[in-house]
Amino acid sequence: MHRIEEFLDMKNEVTEWRRHLHRHPELNYKLYNTANFVTEKLASFGINNIETGIAETGIVALIQGELGEGPTIGLRADMDALPISEASNKPWASEIPGLMHGCGHDGHTAMLLGAAKYLTATRNFKGVVALIFQPAEEDGRGAQRMVQEGIMDRFGISQVFSMHNWPGMPVGQFAICDGAISSALDEFDIIVKGKGGHAAKPHLTNDPIVIAAQIIIGLQTLVSRKTDSQESLVISVTKLNAGTAYNVIPESVQISGTVRTLKSGLRDFAEKHIRSCAEGIASGFDAHVEYTHRRLEPLMFNHTKGTTFAISAARGLVGHDAVDSNAKPSMGSEDFAYMLEARPGAYIRLGNGPTPYVHDPAYDFNDEALPYGIGYWVNLTETTLSP
């Protein structure tokens, strides 16, 4: 098991890669320059089994160990950026207007490249490591597309792992838990349809805006009064669209929002009761609703065996006390959940220090964390694929 000191001398080189990626962000599946950069680096390390064009710009590269035959494990990093104008004021800030690496995927990619360089040089494991560079995590579909295009079967992946930086947690610390670690994500739209009219004559309408307001308040009781307080359900209304003039009560209002849950049964509960709440309130005002519910990322669930490997790898790197093995689940979602549905494994958090939170225009990945991510990947590989 390697200690962090063994990876500190890689920091300067990997920082250059990370900052190059940060200057040149790309979105969703259109990661042509990013994918070319990653592919060229992998080839320069001596990796000759590289498959590109998976889910448009995704990459899988294989490293064969030198300690004999064994299983194949997958290590995944996401590569895409966000449609945000950067406000970090760093010398390596985005050079592409309106785009930035606001979630640290530049750091994730650089760390996996650093681990690839180390593992290619040492190969101190049995079996095979499959390096998975994924597009479109922010789109919520990139991991699903890579799974649908057969990467698990094609490359014989038996377990799969991922890592995400965590602002607010000190650099050099890790956090993980067995079981649910990130919520499932759904979206909904409610269109309230009623009778509009002149703002001076509201009694001649049934005012869909008032109905929408009642529905929004009603949705909050699904969490506070219809869900066990020990269970996690979040219903957030995030969009409200209505009206075109000051003196006109509109005929329709659109309410949109998200649902986040840590239990699959709560997804069914939320879909059923959001609809019935909206329909019931609208009916009481002699109006009706059109309801649409979309299930997006599933619950992300760490498997016990993979979690055990991850904890061992992290503690070997930084010590027992620097790894929280009972972290609280996040109500954020992550499309790596699709890969953990396809294969067992685990997802771990990596401390990013006292930085702005992800998706903040002032956010930047903390380069001090790079050696820790590299060392974790190396330890995880050698632990999971030990002779």
Q: What do you see in this structure?
A:
With 387 residues, the chain is of the alpha/beta class. Strand 1 and strand 2 (58-64) form a beta hairpin. Helix 1 (11-23) packs antiparallel against helix 3 (105-122), helix 3 crosses helix 10 and helix 8 crosses helix 10 (370-384). It is built from ten helices and 16 strands. Helices cover 33% and strands 25% of the residues.
Largest beta-sheet details: 8 strands, mixed
Name the overall outline. Answer: elongated
End-to-end separation in angstroms reads 13 Å
| Sequence of strands across the biggest β-sheet | 1-2-4-3-5-16-6-15
Structural class: alpha/beta
* Order of secondary-structure elements: HHEEEHEHHEEEEEHEEEHEEHEHEH
**Mean pLDDT metric:** 96
- The percentage helix is 25-40%
Radius of gyration, in angstroms, nearest whole number: 24 Å
List the total number of helices: 10
Beta-strand portion reads 25-35%
Give the number of DSSP strands: 16
Q: pLDDT under 50 segments (min length 5)? A: none
Brief digest:
The protein is an alpha/beta fold and 387 residues long.
